[in-house]
Structure formats: C-alpha cells, structure tokens
Amino acid sequence: KYVSPEQAVAAIADGARVILPHGCIEPSEFYRGLQAERQRFRALQLYSGLQFGEYPYLREGVGENFTYTTWQASAKLRPLFKAGKAEFLPVRFRDVVRLLAHDGVLPPDVVVIQCSPPDEGWVSLGISVSLYRDLVESARTVIAEVNPRMPVTHG
C-alpha cells in the first residue's frame, strides 16, 4: 500500500532497529520524513553501511532522537564519530547478513529499501540488491520507497 513518508515513519516504533540502504541508494523522501518526524523518537536505532550521499537523515536528532551505527565508516561521518554520536560495528561485509538475520545478534525490526515500481505485483531491488534481499526476509516491517528510475534487474 502506498503511504506518505510521514505515514511510513509513523509505522516505526520507538526503540526499533532500522536498517537503511547503503551505497548509492538514497530513499530521499523517506529520509525527509524521518527528519520531519524525528521528535517522536527517543530510542530509535539506525544502522547502515557506507553511503555515497550526504547522510541527510543524520542532520539532526543523532544522540537525542536516535542512535546511528555503521559497519562501513565514511569520512563524512568523522564529525559524528569525534562527537561520540556514531558507533562503528566492526564486522566483515560478508557477515553483515548473518549478524542482522532474524535469528542473528541484531535482528532488524524495519528494513528500508528502494525499489522499482511494481509490475504485476513484483518489484525489483535494481541496483540495490546487495544485502537487502536477505534483510527484507529477516525484517518484521519493510518500508519500500518506489523509485520510477530504478532499473528492473533479475535480483
């Protein structure tokens, strides 16, 4: 079902472990909604790997409304690390899925993805398959931002 970014964020319980996309995938509308609704959180846990963008969801609220942990640090995160507002999870990339599996040490409550528009009920993760096919299966809730520019792939 299609909902606004704010409605998608409203579906996330405070204290939930939320896995965000990494690499070049940026669900910008979801990030905007997360920043707009951040005040309702006190203990949200955000996780992601390396992002190529500017980490817009970390502009405000880190340490107050949510925590942030990454398994792939970026130079863009240095100010947050220096301020003690970001954590580093020392794990090999190949082990991330096992760690974040439903029976892993850090099972996800919510996984945020970006996908192609539906075609006969199916969507494609396009260029963002990576860990996310497995993580989607592990999460209680999946929030998918539909991107009409996401190419359809067979992954």
Q: What features would you highlight for this structure?
A:
six-stranded parallel β-sheet; alpha/beta; 5 helices; single chain; globular
What does this structure look like?
The protein has five helices and six strands; from the N terminus they run αβαββαβαβαβ. The protein has helices at about 5-10, 30-35, 80, 95-100, 130-140, and strands spanning about 15-20, 45-50, 65-70, 85-90, 110-115, 140-145. Strands 4-3-2-1-5-6 form a six-stranded parallel sheet, covered by helices on one side. β5 (about 110-115), α5 and β6 (about 140-145) form a beta-alpha-beta unit. The longest helix has 9 residues, at about 30-35. The two termini are about 20 Å apart. The mean pLDDT is about 95.
Number of strands: 6
Contiguous runs where pLDDT drops below 50 for at least 5 residues: none
Structural class: alpha/beta
**Subunit organisation of the chains:** single chain
Q: Level of helix content?
A: 10-25%
Query: Helix and strand string, N-terminal first?
Result: HEHEEHEHEHE
- Measure the end-to-end span: 22 Å
Net shape:
globular
Instruction: Round the Cα radius of gyration to an integer and report it.
Output: 15 Å
Mean pLDDT: 94
Strand content: 15-25%
Strand order of the largest sheet: 4-3-2-1-5-6
| Largest sheet, strands/sense/barrel | 6 strands, parallel
How many DSSP helices? 5
What is the compact description of this entry?
With 155 residues, the protein is α/β, with parallel strands linked by helices.
